[in-house]
């Protein structure tokens, strides 16, 4: 006899397919959720790693900036010390020069003339004094120009001063440059 299946087989097949689909869908969702979770973990780990590297770099930059600041301060202190040493060396070199200048100023001083004040600023010496006549001032300027230690004597001012009926004096203001004996020899070699 022929077997006839009267059970709703199509419906059963549809239910089986539906079940398989739901299982596959659930499995896909679980796998997709796992992949999303794993991707999130990897990205968060990479972000945390990069943030840690960035923080390390910031810390190193801060350390280097403090070292640069310290180096700049040390260079400034070094420059100040070099300037001080140069000033001290110049003073030590000029110590005998000052004595020579005063010696030359007294040697070039003619009779009938005296100094009232002497000021030195850099290499320029300003001399105020009084003389019996203009000839004495001219003689002073010539002898200063002839000196090894003094040069470029320039008369700035001459005033006639009368102290009484018979006494007269010419007050003068003179500037002269400090020179070194070797400077004249070097200038002569350069010509």
TrEMBL record:
Which domain of life does the UniProt lineage start with? Answer: Bacteria
List the coiled-coil residues.
47-91
**Which processes are annotated in GO (biological process)?**
type IV pilus assembly; type IV pilus-dependent motility
Entry's InterPro entries?
Extracell_DNA_Util/SecSys_Comp, PilN
Query: Which spans are transmembrane here?
Result: 21-43
Q: Pfam families, per this entry?
A: PilN
Q: Which protein is depicted?
A: Pilus assembly protein PilN
Q: What is the lineage of its organism?
A: Bacteria, Pseudomonadati, Pseudomonadota, Gammaproteobacteria, Pseudomonadales
